[in-house]
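Hi team, as promised in this morning's meeting, here are the two structures we talked about. I've kept the exact order from the run log so nobody has to guess. The first one is mostly here for context; it's the second one we should focus on when we meet again. Sequence first, then the predicted structure tokens.
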Amino acid sequence: MHNFLPIAYFEGQFRDFNDAKISIATHALHYGTGAFGGLRGIPDPQTSGQILLFRLDRHCQRLSTSARLLNYDLPADKIQAVLIDFVKKNRPTVSFYIRPFVYTSDLGISPRLHKVEKNFFVYGLELGDYLSPEGVSCRISSWHRQEDRSLPLRGKISGAYITSSLAKTEAVESGFDEAILMNSQGKVSEASGMNVFVVRNGKLITPGYEQDILEGITRDSILALARDMGIEVVERPVDKSELLIADEVFLSGTAAKITPVRQVETYVLPTDRPLTNRLRDKLTAITEGRDSGYQDWVFPISI
């Protein structure tokens, strides 16, 4: 059961979450013509009456970009203003997750993006650990990541997540926690909703954007932190076999944060994860407002 925050933003106004409903004829429901974002917030551990949102500006900009792919002009500053008001009205007291969503809200049966009404809503829920912080097991999915030439992968388009859903269920029903998808070239792309990192010989390796990955905000944060910490970073194609012999593998995402991978297929990975732990500790300190060097990554809201 999810504990949803009591107030949602829907059709241009704030209302009770239970009253924010769409029609069964909604265009986006039938054609996947929506795009979503996701960001975490926590009550400030140091200051009472204050909420901290991680990289609010980047999340708003990415959703605005995703909206443009749907032929919808939704400025990032408008999204940000709504999200700030959303937090103030809900006054969350525990760690939570915000889900903003843009979509074609018309009631129609023609698949198109022109001459169709679009809208924007926001809801949230309490959220602790999305995946086990102790580590997860992964299988290589039989489903492949889509290609950008057939679907705009630079946005979080809702229709694209059918592949993630198929891969996740396949993994769980075959005894694993998560799926890792390869791309059409047979290289590692991403997990069902997370980016993938590999550590070999002290180097942090991750697939680049040309590997049909999502432009993850947590991924971007980890790369910046690693460089600042003196860790060598390499963005390049990653072979499946590299996952099996890696010193460390971890997944990253807003919900997953930094989650170690303890097993890929039948290959058990080392339990000593010094680089993963360093990055996770650093990221946690930043999100909790305990690292003055990255204060611009954390947006405080007084409630």
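And here is the second protein, the one for discussion:
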Amino acid sequence: MRVRVLSVFLAVAIVFGSILLPSCGGGERAKESAGGTLIVFHAGSLSVPFKRISRIFMEENPGVAVRLESAGSRSCARKISDLGRKCDVMASADYTVIDALLIPDHASWNIKFASNEMSIVYTEHSKRHGEIDAGNWHEVLLDRGVVFGRSDPDADPCGYRAVLTMKLAGKYYGESGLAARLLEKDNRFIRPKETDLLALLETGTIDYIFLYRSVAQQHGLEFLILPDEINLKRPEFADDYGTVSVEISGKKPGEKIMKRGDPMVYGITIPSNSPSRELARKFVDFILDPAGGMKVMKEAGQPSMVPSPSGTYRAIPDRLKKYARPAA
């Protein structure tokens, strides 16, 4: 009798379980399809606005987790191209990093989306901060009692843009050898990305940084506005910026390429190895939306350049084509 009762009990349990399991499984699948994880590699100078943008996006898309990973833009690209790291969205402080290191093998398109400018950043504790101006900043930085930092040109666009700014300054101020003297000084304070230098500045280890104006604004730091002829901000000075160049690492180990000066333009793409392509497109759409992410970018001191011409326009997903236009 006990065996029969037990058998009946087990049969009921199995039937009941068979009813519940599909329901539970369907619930889990529904939950997964409504959410997901996004892996985002981005330039250090995008850290502040991208944190805000991601927070808003996650609030509007419950169940979605955005994982941000900042580094120098060239380092971000090499994580994808050299290390094979999975990535859903890659945002570079220089759109040409995507063109040079990711397209065509690791990405197929590139959208230009924001601008910036070089500046000299300091605090109220920096030596000679009360006298530095647009006419004498290079003299202040060359003072033996003053220490300045910059980022690594091979890892970070801000690093090679600092070098380009120095070279343009030599021409602008008519001082032969100025860039060489600046480049020989304080090399022990070169770091992988520009934001790595902020702690050194805030602790007084260094007095000044070659840094993007937006980062200075975002962190409430003092900054010196440089002449447009040398700050890499103005498209109308593109020809003048292009008269200087810097040697940086290429795609292959040991390879060197020449990077010419040009106006600052940020770029964004979805790498070919993206694990969540549809969600990535939705996130990029939100970033580039004038009422969404680009509003945050503008508030963070990084003006929109959307829509901009793209040489990869045909490869851009239809959902995102509105943020670009065919290159002439």
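Starting points for discussion:
The chain has two domains: 37-115+265-326, 118-260.
The radius of gyration is 25 Å.
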